[in-house]
Design goal:
Four copies of one chain form a homotetramer. With 255 residues, chain A is α+β, with helices and mostly antiparallel strands. In chain A, 24% of the residues lie in helices and 30% in strands. In chain A, α4 packs parallel to α6 and α6 crosses α7. The first copy, chain A, is globular, with a radius of gyration of 17 Å. Chains A and D meet through β3 and α3 of A and β3 and α3 of D.
Chain lengths: 255, 255, 255, 255
């Protein structure tokens, strides 16, 4: 179980959310409170939009809490839309290519969850990715495969429908392989303008995900970074928060 | 183009070949002389047989020339059969999982070469690996995929036939994808007893590979570690040196 | 606060203590139970005696719990005397040179504790190290400085007296600098034959340290690796366990 | 011998100089042409001014040529003043704390050269650093010690005089220690506005350093990044180029 954070709004320094708050994402890397795994030390990543349509990425295999590069970059980079993620591996190796967020063209994606019995369906899930997209697969995680599979199912045109279709297919593959462990999917996606935040699980128990919007902007987090849960809205199980640039936030149902 | 070394014989310290000689493998990591790429700084690995049927592995993403752990381990580990490899990436990421040697059960494999146009045939080459073996794939390199494909084609029963069949199939896949770049395969394989050393290329220009045997044991190297090429025998292009434990070395033809 | 383990006895695989037990040192890297800091993810190290008078070292900046090299090396290296350490930094950087154990000639040392207000007395503590020894300083930790200062005070001839004298001097330096934080020193030392295990603190609250001896050998641990505290003897506060090779274990007083 | 680059002028993407040119600094990390050491693979670093008076830093122990984070950050960060450095160690460990540039407050410094016989005078050179500044020492390199010694000698008020005095003192320490190897100092310094570029050696053979100014800005480089040496001006041996923000570049003599 990982922890993550997404922001869109007035350009702010990444450190304002990643490092500074009492229960910042860096703090959550060492002391997560709403996850079964309190330590998220198997790598981390940040991704931000600035000079280009495609995001910048800094992903590293060390724990976030002791990474001086992370603190320095977050104290200097200002962005109107960024993702940050601290990783607790569910089995795959700790390499940069396995760290979130993942970028495909101008899209960026990060995930907290897992495909139960991954090694038993990895082959079939990867088969959902067409050749052209398969070239973009750099690591070996289930998360990256789910993203590419969703791209193949129309993510560019309709993210909610594509993610729903992807989850349904993966679940069928898991059923066919007689995998009893659940498929859990708490994730965030962006095209550099809109943010989509998903929360779904085959057993009805996805990881937590909260959001809040104020004059500065919209924040999506695994755990409230200020410790005041009453000020945050939980994304409903089976739901998706859609936050278009310049438009009102709305909640849709997955599946 | 990488550089590698294999040894089997009287138990010796790894450093006797990896670190001590004038043109040792560590020296070759910084100053290879027979390769187009003089620097092999994209990770390294050692693998050795000792306490178990399966090999021990130390693989790291740093350059070999400055790795104090490598020097320390090589100064303390004594083995009757070991592999060592310094990597110059042909495109895939520098991660531990992409560093040689690769181990599958009691087998160990390392490679210096490349599948031309890899991203264009990766999917098809990976499709040669059956589900059961695919679970063992940890990285994203062409080298690891070639090994697993050869295992699927009978490597355990007849390594020379399996490697030949694998190379023929991959070449056909490359032809079908209209890839003009060559398939080059200079590699070493062991089951913990016999060493097989292969040298083949679709354009007849595989990377160099030499061998020498004396009272202490057998050594296979990309470049002579003592700088005296006249004392080493080149493995013929299209050939394979087979060195069974306790038996005479013989040369066989591939394909 | 770190966690560590020392062993001397019948040659055993390192994994028998480092990886296999229910509350092994690798397990303690993620879930220490007797320390204020439950996570010891700021690097680790193993050191062992085998082929030479000087120990072999493998030290790395990653968390121990996910390091595949550590598991592989521990599954292949058999030793009659080894140290293992997982680190929770008290402020200095996470670099290999700052990871324990530290080796000086045939001696090996590891530490769990801290010099309160280190940056304020670092200069003076380093001044206790003579020029010749100062060349051996590779990192920037208080732990390595304490070791070298003790060497200067006669560690080779009388470890208990030298450690006592070093602690007394450092405490005076801290007093002179009006440092209110305590000096805490829970440590293990070996010359490749005898093991010394120290437990002392200026505020009477050193980190835990236990030992046990049976037919196989002697084990010193920060936390009992089997979870059965009743089977282990706590090293007394202000005391030192001295375990000479082939002789009876005895307890001495520090200071 | 390392390679480095400094820029001040119109805000540009770091990649315009670090990654894009034919003989960019990343290219020089693998194929330097004017240094005895062609490979600069022992770590790298970038430092830039943007949101704050103090610079942002990204320093890593891997070779620059294969670091995907470096390429991504350089493609997204735009700055009016930045340094970049690729390292070839002259003996000290490869750790982040030993990678250039070094930052002290709003100052930033990078170095290509060495203190001959460093381990023999390290203690005395470090003694030039007052206690208050010594706390800022994070690594173990000669380069960082030279910077802090120069700060103690008045770098803030008069950089050229302070660097000259520092070099004179270090040379006397080396003479006193009967060190025959030279002191070589090719370096760049900035306070976030002015750039100073130094080139001096006790044997009259400092590493190369060039500069060029056009409408976009000023560039200082170890090797011309466009391969056209005729378009660049060599900084004279024993000299210093001073480039104040908004003022004319002038050349001063050191010592």
């Amino acid at each position: 179980m990982c922890r993550f954070l997404a922001y869109r709004g007035q350009p702010i320094l990444l450190e304002d959310l990643v490092a500074a708050p009492a229960h910042s994402l860096i703090e959550q890397s060492l002391h997560a409170t709403e996850a079964r795994t309190g330590t998220n030390g198997d790598g981390f990543g940040i991704g931000w939009y600035g000079e280009r349509d495609t995001p910048g990425l800094y992903r590293e295999v060390h724990p976030a809490w002791s990474d001086e590069n992370l603190r320095s970059i977050c104290s200097q980079v200002r962005s109107r839309l960024f993702f940050a993620h601290v990783r607790a591996s569910t089995g795959t190796a700790t390499s940069r290519s396995n760290c979130h967020p993942f970028a495909v063209g101008r899209y960026m994606f990060m995930h907290n969850g897992q495909v139960g019995g991954w090694s038993g369906v990895r082959r079939q899930v990867e088969a959902m990715i067409p050749d052209q997209l398969y070239m973009a697969r750099q690591g070996t995680t289930d998360s990256e495969a789910l993203l590419l599979a969703a791209v193949a199912l129309g993510l560019i045109d309709d993210p909610v429908a594509a993610i729903s279709a992807m989850l349904a297919r993966v679940r069928r593959l898991m059923d066919a392989a007689a995998i009893g462990e659940p498929l859990r999917f708490t994730a965030a996606l962006t095209d550099g303008a809109t943010i989509w935040a998903f929360r779904w699980a085959s057993d009805g128990k996805p990881a937590t995900l909260y959001w809040k919007e104020d004059d500065t902007g919209l924040i999506v987090v695994s755990e409230p970074i200020d410790g005041h849960r009453e000020d945050w809205e939980a994304i409903p199980v089976g739901g998706c928060v859609i936050a278009p640039a310049g438009g009102a936030v709305r909640v849709a149902a997955l599946m």
